[in-house]
Write a structure and sequence with these properties.
With 432 residues, the chain is mostly helical. It has 16 helices and no strands. The chain has one domain: Amino acid/polyamine transporter I (Up-down Bundle). The longest helix has 35 residues.
């Protein structure tokens, strides 16, 4: 029964966990444990609303935005490119670095990134993405168990004091920037809620089992809270093995990859151990999955949004299993023509995404840490926008009444909006 939730976990458990969680533990100990816990709590409603809406209505968040008015879709189309290129470039850079270190490849990092994106394009073109989807649950399990064992073993080797004192970096632009970066992709950018709604819609249409409203929410919760468990594992691994050593993570991708694997090596007892390759393959596959998922999802949502701009929404508003294609068909649109336009828009946005990402990678391949910081900060600053859209949609008459959130979830949502907006304004004020 599990599907979209694990796809979400596979896409989320990448840069935010391998890089930012581990780096936080290594450089600050458990000082920012509060940031991880709070951001996962306050982002939760806005991710959950995407699954909730699709499960209840049988259509994606993009169709919901369309119901709210074309201006919402236009706003989405304008806002998404602000982050999409840096997201793709960042995950591609980290994946390329892992490949280079794991297999001892000495080459230009931009070249490896270009080859990686080309491989992903081929996989998506021939439709083999489903193979990776089918094995991602096992990869996540291997990575989780490996990291858990490494943390347990590292506990017995701790020879330094651990920092549990929370740090609240008010007025400190550098440390505040680090916290914003940590929270930006923890567990993922909020605009990924649109991706999750598309996966949930596909699951509803393709499964022969009873993937109903309740099961869909259970599936999402399994994937979402799994990202919290892994975030705590990576935070602990960095704090237990590296904190207090005086060593900071390097800014280059290759240097960071070496330090990451050394954390596991020290915990397991040597780079030559079987654990090095087990963890290496699991981490690489997870990041490759993230790269491939982003490369598929970003042009898919942008393409669909641009097509929906010229599509009339359905006249009937009720709970059911009507999909976007069903709506278009019922509104006298040609279904095959829509599919053709949707596919064409997908590949146009794919070309734009690859070109924009490669331009960024050509300038930032040696400064992966800087690229990741820029990408995550931009994602955090745009979070309130997507959060507001999801909240307005789920509480509107466009959502079936039984699926609208109760008072508890509404209070959590409003509190989350205040938290996210306040930190965004604080960062802008401190930075400027």
């Amino acid at each position: 029964m599990l599907g979209p939730g694990l796809l979400f976990a596979g896409a989320a458990v990448g840069t935010s966990h391998l890089y930012w969680s581990t780096k936080s533990g290594a450089e600050y100990g458990f000082a920012f444990l509060w940031a991880i816990l709070l951001i996962l709590l306050f982002k939760y409603p806005f991710f959950e609303f995407g699954t909730r809406y699709t499960a209840a209505k049988g259509e994606t968040l993009l169709s919901g935005y369309q119901r709210m008015g074309k201006w919402v879709l236009w706003a989405y189309i304008i806002m998404t490119p602000i982050t999409m290129f840096t997201i793709q470039a960042a995950v591609t850079a980290l994946t390329s670095s892992l490949i280079m270190y794991l297999f001892g490849i000495s080459a230009n990092a931009a070249l490896i990134s270009g080859i990686l994106l080309s491989l992903c394009l081929v996989i998506l073109y021939i439709g083999r993405f489903s193979i990776l989807d089918n094995i991602i649950k096992y990869i996540i399990i291997i990575l989780t168990l490996s990291t858990f064992v490494a943390v347990v073993l590292a506990i017995g080797k701790v020879d330094h004091d651990l920092n549990w004192t929370p740090i609240f970096p008010l007025g400190d632009a550098v440390t505040l920037g680090f916290v914003i970066s940590l929270m930006g992709w923890m567990p993922a950018p909020v605009d990924m809620s649109v991706w999750n709604s598309i996966w949930a819609e596909s699951k509803q249409k393709s499964t022969s089992e009873d993937f109903d409203y309740k099961t869909s929410l259970v599936d999402f919760n399994v994937g979402y809270w799994a990202t919290l468990i892994l975030a705590l594992f990576f935070l602990s691994l960095g704090a237990l093995v590296m904190y207090g050593s005086g060593t900071q993570f390097e800014n280059s991708g290759l240097g960071f990859s070496k330090q990451l694997f050394n954390l596991y090596s020290e915990a397991f007892g040597g780079e030559s151990s079987w654990a090095f390759w087990l963890v290496g393959i699991a981490a690489l596959t997870t990041m490759f999955s993230t790269t491939l998922t982003c490369l598929d999802a970003l042009p898919r949502v942008m393409g669909r949004a641009s097509v929906l701009i010229n599509t009339r929404p359905p006249d009937i508003n009720h709970m059911g299993t009507r999909t976007v294609l069903d709506d278009i068909k019922s509104a006298d649109f040609d279904e095959k023509d829509f599919e053709r336009r949707d596919r064409k828009a997908y590949w146009i946005w794919m070309a734009i995404l690859v070109l924009g990402s490669m331009i960024i990678l050509l300038f930032f391949t040696t400064e992966m840490g800087t690229l990741l910081k820029v990408a995550t900060i931009l994602s955090f600053l745009t979070t309130p926008f997507y959060a507001v859209l999801n909240y307005l949609l789920i509480t509107s008459h466009h959502t079936p009444e039984f699926a609208r959130p109760g008072i508890g979830m509404r209070i959590l949502s409003i509190t989350g909006l205040i938290f996210l907006t306040s930190f965004s304004l604080l960062y802008l004020y401190t930075f400027l």
